[in-house]
Amino acid sequence: MPTLDTATEAVQAQTPVDGEPCVLIKLGEVVLKGKNRELFERRLADNVRAATRGIARVDVIRRHGVFIVRTKDATVEKIDALAERISDVMGIVWAHRAWRVGKDVESVERAALELMAGRTGSFAVRTKRRDKRFPLTSTELDRQVGGKINDVYGLPVKLKGPDHTVSIEIDRDEAFVFSGGLPGQGGLPVGMSGRGLVLMSGGIDSPVAAYRMMRRGLRVDYLHFSGMPFTGPESIYKAYALVRELDKFQGGSRLFVVPFGKAQQQIKSSGADKLAVIAQRRLMLKTGEVLAHRLGGGTLITGDALGQVSSQTLTNITALDDAVELPILRPLIGMDKIEIMDQARRIRTLSISELPDEDCCTLLAPRRAETRAKIDDLRQIEKRLDVAELADQLAESVQEHRPVYGDS
Ligand code: ATP
Ligand code: MG
User: Fold this and answer.
1) Ligand nearest to the CA of residue 328, numbered in listed order
2) CA 313 – CA 371 distance, rounded (Å)
3) Which of 137, 157, 183 is the last residue of a domain?
4) Where is the signal peptide (predicted)?
5) Within-domain flag for 7
6) Any idea which ligand is nearest the CA of 284?
7) Pick from 2, 3, 200, 285: most CB atoms within 10 A?
8) Rounded distance between C-alpha atoms, residue 49 and residue 271, angstroms
């Protein structure tokens, strides 16, 4: 995990730079133009304000390609906490803790010296000018500030692969000086692409699927089917913990839980046999569709990956698509389990997914599942069950939860 490589102690030990610490945000998807760009930036600024509400009241100042996040009485600790929180907000490529200083060489030098205080090893200075009227060129300022650091600390300059990089950015009204930063998630701000409903199992895949769709700007709600009353509530606790963790990427998450055990039993006694798993999955999707319509969602999202398990063959996926009219998004469709697990680890859902529970899908499942489900056969089963009515009832029976990131 990268850290804010800004030598916190060294900065505090000395007289503060006459400037203020702030978070400098680099935006993603810079190719967006015109109206989309405006939408992106506005949405992102709102999302940054919402995500940081629990830490401090912030001002988000929009500049070309970057945001500046300021807060009153900013301390280094508060700014670090803000940067860390902001690095989870979708649409951001970097969150830097930066010193915001006067737009003159002397102020920039002073900040750069403080950033490098107490450090060893080589360094490089890199300047970017968003205001081209600044009297020195980028290379001139690199040399000037680099020379100063070299004079004062005797550290060697190394342009390729330095141990430390001091970044200077000259903006419209001020300069920013920073070293290191936190990589963001990239993607688009949540809310830019509409709303969807994630079918959330408690396994490894569906949380990653949710993450990947949020990263494309979708705001998501979650739907979990528990085996209750024939299983304990463990799978619900897991789904809750997963959604609470994923809430850091969007805020305001809703988890809907359906007790699914009785419906599963009905499927089983309808003689579904080898088709039981696909019939169950179709019922989940149909229930999801009813709920999505109620919530204003335009899509369903699952953690299916082609061929991963017997229910995820191409034929079976086709039979699942047939169950609903809403599009089903499957962001993991072409991913290996190893890749999915790596991503789950990075977003911190893996350890929760690996907790033991009693998955509703193993309940009442046949010993051998059908890998080539026939849609006509499935429709026959569903006719006997009056499945539309059943999906309505299940969607009526949901319990709503609001897991909040950071709550215990
Ligand atoms: P996961 O790791 O997400 O559980 P999986 O490899 O176990 O996936 P399946 O059990 O076949 O795969 O489930 C495929 C998809 O169906 C899941 O990713 C999820 O979107 C949905 N799903 C399965 N079980 C449930 C459930 N109990 N509640 C809600 N959605 C479910
Ligand atoms: Mg599963």
Assistant:
1) 1
2) 6
3) 183
4) none
5) no
6) 1
7) 200
8) 54
